[in-house]
Amino acid sequence: MAELKPLASADDLMARGLPYEPASLLGVLLESVSAAVREAAGVPISAVSATLTMAGTHEQFLQLPVSPVVAVDSVAIEGVPVTGWKVRDGRLWRASGWAGQSKDVEVTLTYGYAKVPADIVQLVCSFVGAGMIAAQDGDLVRDRGLAYTSIDDFREGYRTGDSEIVDVTELPDRVKNSLRARFSGGAHVTGGY
User: Fold this and answer.
1) pTM over 0.70
2) What is the mean pLDDT of residues 17-33?
3) What is the pLDDT of residue 156?
4) Predicted confidence (pLDDT) at residue 55 exceeds the cutoff of 90
5) DSSP secondary structure string, the chain?
């Protein structure tokens, strides 16, 4: 698979009034936050081409484990190209089925979004912007996990353990869970053995 471009760009940060200099730091943060978002989602999100190999089935439908499916370029069973298939709702349909579970089906396809959804661009920009601002303020390490400050009889409290903020660009669990739920595709019943 080719190297994936970040899910947002310097122009996206500029449009939101967020810092985008120095370019070297921006590039690093765009790459790392995009990778974290993709890992949490479990999919590349942006469109990619790939060849997948999966077990065949006697059923007429073969569920593709990726979404959204943009195009299927070719299908082969045990390396032999096959015809007579159609893409239906993210699945491959073939009247004669897929040669049983002992056979491998290779599918070359493109999946993902041609244009990254606006809310994903916003999410990436928010975390990258926070990292850029923290770097400008020198707060990347200082005061990490600060939970509260009191003035009279001065006090400070810090988050610890799982709730500690180590890096402002780190995705919180609620964001990871939301991405996983949105992009995981859910469970599919494909038939029995």
Assistant:
1) yes
2) 94
3) 77
4) yes
5) -PPPPPSS-HHHHHHTT----SHHHHHHHHHHHHHHHHHHHTS--B-EEEEEEEE--SSSEEE-SSSSEEEEEEEEETTEE--SEEEETTEEEETT--S-TTSEEEEEEEESBSS--HHHHHHHHHHHHHHHHHHHHTTTTTTTTEEEEETTTTEEEE--GGG--S-TTSPPHHHHHHHHHHHS---------
